[in-house]
Amino acid sequence: MPHGDITHIEIPVTDFAAAGAFYSALFGWQIAEAPGFEGYPMWQAPNKISGGAFTKREDGSTSPLSYVEVDSIDDTLAAARAAGGTVVAEKAPITDTSWWAVVADPDGNTLGLYEGMTTPPEG
């Protein structure tokens, strides 16, 4: 995906099963826990492009969080700071080939950052 595309949306919920039933009935989302991501039920829209996951609703995680794909989280964190934003969560690994972080704009809106690939390269 190109730099700047929204790639993933996390929705905080209190009950994974109830949320899965609701969103499946409402939008036809397919929901499953992928191997290695137990306790993080992921959803995929019927277009097979849009998707995300359910997270546990708790303090600090009460609104959906969109993740934007970037070429370099390190560069994007530096650019966010330089532009007046703040880093809410520093760069952390997802897999051996992917990372995430969270920034806030000057108004306090948060966006997740995603770099890499979660599936091994073919070859």
Automatic annotation (TrEMBL):
SUPFAM superfamilies associated with the record: Glyoxalase/Bleomycin resistance protein/Dihydroxybiphenyl dioxygenase (SSF54593)
Parts forming coiled coils: none
Pfam families attached to this UniProt entry: Glyoxalase (PF00903)
Protein name (Swiss-Prot/TrEMBL): VOC family protein
Residues in VOC domain copies: 5-116
PANTHER family noted in UniProt: GLYOXALASE-RELATED
